[in-house]
């Protein structure tokens, strides 16, 4: 892709893939930050033999929110990528969804609330360095996949039941009793689940869980 300027606006992931696929193939250093695995389909090669070779031949860093670990399938996918050599970390803070290629090109995801999501492809050096700086700060503050997943195992096992309780309006004392735990322990689990989902209110749980394929 030849950029006619140092900032290009692209609409839709299909167009993004068509215009930047060769940049991903050529890049040897890929840094990716996303709320979940579905923001950047083009940055997660299918784990065919070709895809595995691509992972091994590049320095790949992926930063996600905890919600990716609530789904067994996506959790297994991340662990397999990690086994192939990709560095994966989980952060609980807000993430600027972006991809950096060889620290020379940055791709920023636009508002996901739009019918067709837009993406900005940026090659202006000072802007790329600013985005890289934000990524590095979030990366250093995040935990490794293995460390976070060890803490997350209990939440993942209990998440389906807690989600059911939250979305059906079950009272905390009744939900806690069903799970065989105290009310305070249950409420702590709920708070941890909200962090994992990336929401701040129980009212947001249903919509977010459906986005992640948990309901």
Characterization of the model:
- There is one protein chain.
- This protein is of the alpha+beta class.
- It has two domains: 7-141, Endonuclease, Chain A, CATH 3.30.870; 151-212, Arc Repressor Mutant, subunit A (Orthogonal Bundle).
- The protein is 49% helix and 17% strand.
- It contains eight helices and eight strands, in the order E-H-E-H-E-H-E-E-E-E-H-E-H-H-H-H.
- Strands 1-7-6-5-2-3-4-8 form an eight-stranded mixed sheet, sandwiched between helices.
- Strand 5 (98-101) and strand 6 form a beta hairpin.
- Helix 6 packs across helix 7 (183-197).
- The protein starts with 6 loop residues before the first strand and ends with a helix.
- The model has no long low-confidence stretch (mean pLDDT 84).
Please supply descriptive tags for the structure shown above.
single chain; 215 residues; alpha+beta; Endonuclease, Chain A; Arc Repressor Mutant, subunit A; 2 domains; 8 helices; 8 strands; elongated; WH-like_DNA-bd_sf; LuxR family transcriptional regulator
């Amino acid at each position: 892709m030849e950029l006619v300027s140092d900032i290009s606006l692209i609409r839709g992931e299909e167009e993004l893939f068509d215009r930047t696929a060769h940049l991903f193939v050529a890049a040897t250093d890929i840094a990716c930050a996303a709320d979940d695995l579905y923001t950047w389909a083009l940055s997660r090669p299918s784990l065919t033999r070709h895809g595995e070779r691509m992972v091994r031949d590049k320095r790949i860093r992926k930063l996600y929110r905890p919600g990716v670990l609530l789904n067994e399938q996506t959790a297994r996918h991340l662990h397999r990528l990690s086994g192939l050599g990709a560095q994966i970390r989980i952060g609980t803070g807000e993430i600027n969804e972006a991809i950096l290629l060889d620290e020379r090109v940055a791709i920023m995801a636009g508002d996901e609330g739009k019918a067709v999501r837009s993406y900005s492809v940026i090659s202006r050096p000072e802007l790329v360095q600013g985005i890289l700086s934000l990524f590095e700060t979030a990366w250093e503050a995040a935990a490794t996949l293995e460390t976070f997943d060890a803490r997350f195992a209990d939440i993942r096992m209990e998440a389906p039941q807690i989600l059911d309780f939250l979305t059906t309006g079950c009272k905390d004392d009744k939900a806690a009793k069903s799970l065989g735990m105290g009310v305070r322990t249950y409420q702590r689990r709920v708070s941890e689940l909200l962090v994992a989902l990336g929401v701040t209110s129980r009212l947001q749980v249903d919509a977010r869980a459906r986005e992640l394929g948990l309901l």
